[in-house]
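Methods — Computational structure assignment.
A single polypeptide chain was analysed. Its primary sequence is given first, followed by the predicted tertiary structure written as structure tokens.
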Amino acid sequence: MHPYQDDIETVVYCEAPVFDQRDITDSGGHTEQRYVIKTQLVISQHQWPIELTLTNRDTMKFRMLLGRSAMTERMIVNPAESYLLGQPDMKKTAKAKK
């Protein structure tokens, strides 16, 4: 995968067993069959198991979307706030890109 937006040079190889395949309809009404994997979501000191559907998001603004079923009752989203757990460390991000 390409973890950084607009950077096709940096590649991270990932592997996970396929859990399922599902038909997913995007916001434009297009349906595609996607692979589903199970993984751990880690936010701050909290973590829990989630299911992820896989698709190529190289041309999208965000590398990943977190759906409401992954958030369950564990999270409250306040759209008026940003970076409640702190801003990303850009030095770490820049170092990871090299």
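Note: The chain has a mean pLDDT of 85.
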